[in-house]
Specification:
The complex is a heterodimer of chains A (about 300) and B (about 425).
Chain A lengths: L7 H19 L3 E4 L4 H14 L8 E5 L5 H13 L4 E5 H6 L14 H15 L3 E3 L16 E4 L27 E4 L7 H11 L10 E8 L2 E4 L13 E7 L10 E3 L5 H10 L17 H8 L3
Helix pairs in contact in A: 1-2, 6-7
Chain B lengths: L12 E8 L6 H11 L5 H13 L8 H4 L3 H6 L6 E6 L3 E8 L5 H9 L4 E7 L6 H12 L4 E7 L8 H15 L6 E6 L23 H7 L12 E3 L2 E3 L11 E5 L4 E3 L3 E5 L4 E9 L2 E3 L1 E3 L3 E6 L10 E4 L5 E12 L10 E6 L2 E14 L6 E2 L10 E14 L10 E5 L6 E7 L1
Parallel strand pairs in B: 1-3, 1-4, 4-5, 5-6
Antiparallel strand pairs in B: 2-3, 7-16, 8-9, 9-15, 10-14, 11-12, 11-16, 12-13, 12-15, 17-21, 17-23, 18-19, 18-22, 19-20, 19-21, 22-23
The chains are: A alpha/beta (about 300), B alpha+beta (about 425).
Chain lengths: ~300, ~425
């Protein structure tokens, strides 16, 4: 008899497409949170597969911290143009200018917490009832408890102790007026799965995921890209380094790794050999043991 | 991580398993060991839990901290919710649904079990088969987890004696004979010392079987999906209405059972309209055949009225279309089940309303006794009930197909998922 088994990537892909179609069917105004990072790029690719030959039935939303890598923004704009999708930009700078968010001060100031304000504002402005995020359960311990369909109350908050049970593949997206959902199609993927899939499907990603020469400096063991948004301490020295990024947030929360990986194959090999998690280079998670849980409860994705 | 060759992923498959039990059984230690020995714990993760253990004044690195992610869980030293863990070997990717043993026990185990190919049941070698073992096993059989792996743990504390293992194996076998479990494996292990988890034990020459890791890597999972009864619940209708695809009308969904081929004669339920499969599409590709659990888009030869919630099945093998359904129900909410109460019901992509007509019996999950005169169904109770739906749905029995045989009940006032049902 023929062997009807899928490879792990095919099975994950099929599950994610299923989740995206459930989302499109159960919600009226969904949106895809798109950062220009690899996870949201994979979500976009899966959405194209889920609804082909039709266009994807929701816009992309970028919560723009204003502290971006230029390469990511160029990539974002080209992708939106190429596939003819609507791109909505929520600006953290605007939230600050309107006095809704207050910029942090000091050497380690970050716009991470401020993103939540802009995200919730954007959701309200466009009346989105579900936002797709590229978060994965393997990333972080609070995320290990996330549902595919994650309920948020009218304040956008996550209540981890009181989540709806999610059985089989039956997702319950019912909600009261003003409440909304975060939907995570690639919950069950690991960093390795994402890279293998990008390789398998030959998906385009921003150039800064590949090795390049960049002006960097080292702080607390993390390699940062030198830019005008992170003030240097007197002892810190800027040097040219051969680096790439394993994960892309915005400049002040993303660390680089020394790497010569120039192809997707080389990246997969590098990820396989590495001994630290990708969030190890994310400064936003290092603030406290429950940093992610606290941000998620407040409405972060 | 383990040595992946860059092409190795092209042949890896996926196994989902659940572990049930409390910290005392050594569950967290076992998971920690699987992750640690398969090199799936990263240095910074290990460093973080080492630091937390030290801060809490614990003598050893507490691997349970790896799985207890929420602040409240760490504070109280208990696991509140199902947590998902991931690891991979060159052969397979694994998803662990790690379910807590303390509170809301049944609700969480049922959730974890609902998507699992295998269940690991831990028995403390010193205690043998206890009430909790029976509960775990009953739920594994109720949820029809295809493979059960019984790990007799803490063998180091009983001097690795074969008699202890054999007695537990016999006790378990005679108990499990009352339940429908198809594939059971027994292993003597010590999660703490590592015997027979990833590496073969040097302390139990008498055991000739496989290690846990070997077993997990080699379980035959190709038959866990139903490949004989072709079922396709329509999730979403794709109509591009663009100049390139002017007349395209595709039915998007995930195959819930069986195999569909181009040209197959199909019937749409509940309407009963018939047609033939014209194409099986995914992005820029057309397939000759597709099988569960693939997500595809079907187009049909005839233009018929089909929408979300309809079921496409092969005409020579149809599911039952009915409004009266008998289910084994696991109750998930604090508020009691209401006899004659109305609930929203979700079955595949279909949503209808239903009314609870009868509560036939409740199951004592420790003794498996059927209690006929108790109609009070509380959180974590399991009961056999009869419901009637507002409109017909196309169903299979749960034992035939987990996808088309399962339902959830939703409270219409709070929108909370309150019940999980398996059609009998």
């Amino acid at each position: 008899m023929k062997n009807y088994t899928l490879t792990h990537l095919k099975e994950l892909e099929s599950e994610s497409i299923y989740v995206l179609r459930e989302l499109a069917a159960q919600f009226e105004r969904p949106a895809l949170l798109f950062s220009g990072g690899k996870d949201s790029i994979v979500c976009f690719h899966l959405a194209r597969k889920a609804f082909a030959p039709a266009k994807i039935p929701f816009p992309l939303v970028h919560v723009d911290t204003g502290h971006n890598f230029e390469e990511t923004i160029i990539f974002r704009d080209e992708l939106a143009k190429k596939y003819n999708v609507q791109l909505i930009i929520g600006s953290v700078q605007q939230s600050i200018d309107e006095g809704k968010a207050i910029e942090e001060k000091g050497f380690n100031a970050s716009r991470n917490v401020l993103q939540t304000v802009t995200l919730l504002d954007t959701i309200e402005k466009y009346k989105f009832d579900a936002c797709i995020g590229g978060a994965r359960r393997d990333e972080e311990k609070a995320r290990a408890k996330e549902r595919f369909f994650s309920h948020r109350d009218e304040f956008g908050q996550w209540d981890p102790k009181n989540q709806r049970p999610e059985l089989w593949n039956l997702f319950n997206g019912k909600k009261h007026l003003g409440e909304n959902f975060r939907v995570f199609p690639i919950s069950n993927w690991t960093e390795m799965d994402v890279w293998q899939y990008i390789l398998q499907e030959n998906i385009e990603i921003p150039s800064i995921y590949y090795t390049h020469e960049r002006e960097c400096f080292v702080r607390d063991g993390v390699i940062y890209a030198h830019s005008n948004v992170i003030p240097l301490k007197p002892t810190e020295k800027v040097e040219k380094m051969q680096v790439r990024f394993r994960t892309i947030g915005y400049i002040s929360c993303t660390g680089a790794v020394l790497s010569k990986a120039n192809t997707l194959e080389e990246i997969v090999e590098e990820v396989a050999a590495t001994r630290v998690t990708e969030r190890g280079s994310r400064i936003d998670d290092k603030r406290s043991e429950a940093a992610m849980e606290d941000r998620k409860k407040a409405g972060y994705f | 991580m383990t040595d992946f060759s860059t092409a190795g992923y092209l042949t890896m498959d996926l196994l989902r398993f659940t572990t049930a039990g409390s910290v005392d059984d050594g569950k967290s230690t076992l998971i920690g060991r699987l992750l640690y020995d398969s090199k799936s714990i990263f240095e910074d993760q290990y460093e973080a839990i080492r630091a937390s253990s030290e801060k809490r004044g614990e003598e050893y690195v507490n691997l349970a901290l790896l799985t207890d992610g929420l602040r409240a869980e760490r504070e109280q030293g208990i696991t509140i919710d199902v947590a998902y863990r991931y690891f991979a070997t060159p052969k397979r990717k694994f998803i662990i649904a790690d379910t807590p043993g303390h509170i809301q026990y049944t609700r969480n185990m049922v959730t974890g079990a609902s998507t699992a190919n295998a269940a690991i049941i831990l028995i403390d070698a010193r205690k043998g088969v206890i009430e909790q073992t029976m509960r775990h096993t009953y739920i594994a059989s109720l949820l029809r987890i295809p493979h059960v792996i019984v790990c007799v743990n803490k063998m180091d504390l009983v001097e690795y004696k074969e008699e202890v293992f054999e007695k537990i194996k016999n006790d378990y076998t005679s108990f499990a004979a009352k339940l429908e479990i198809t594939d059971v494996h027994f292993l003597p292990i010590s999660a703490l010392k590592g015997d027979n988890v990833v590496d073969e034990s040097k302390n139990m020459d008498w055991y000739k079987g496989a290690t846990l890791m070997y077993l997990l890597e080699n379980l035959q999972i190709s038959n866990d999906q139903n490949h004989s009864d072709a079922r396709f619940p329509v999730q979403y209708v794709i109509r591009p209405m663009s100049s390139d695809h002017h007349d395209y009308r595709g039915y998007a969904g995930r195959i819930a059972g069986g195999v569909f081929k181009k040209g197959d004669a199909v019937t749409v339920l509940p309407s009963g309209f018939t047609s033939k499969i014209k194409s099986i599409d995914i992005l820029n590709e057309s397939l000759e055949e597709a099988f569960a659990p693939m997500s595809v888009t079907l187009t049909l030869e005839n233009e018929i009225d089909i929408s979300r919630g309809d079921m496409i099945a092969k005409t020579d093998n149809l599911p039952e279309t009915t409004q009266d359904i008998e289910i084994m129900l696991c109750w998930l909410a604090d508020k009691q089940l209401q006899l004659n109460g109305k609930y929203a019901l979700r079955h595949t992509s279909k949503e209808v309303r239903c009314v609870v007509k009868d509560i036939q019996y409740k199951v004592n999950i420790n003794t498996l006794e059927k209690i006929k005169d108790d109609k009070i169904i509380n959180l974590n109770d399991i009961a056999c009930i009869t419901i009637k739906t507002t409109s017909p749905i196309a169903i299979d029995k749960y034992k035939k197909n987990r996808n088309t045989g399962s339902v959830i009940l939703i409270d219409e006032a709070s929108n909370i998922t309150v019940g999980a049902g398996m059609i009998i």
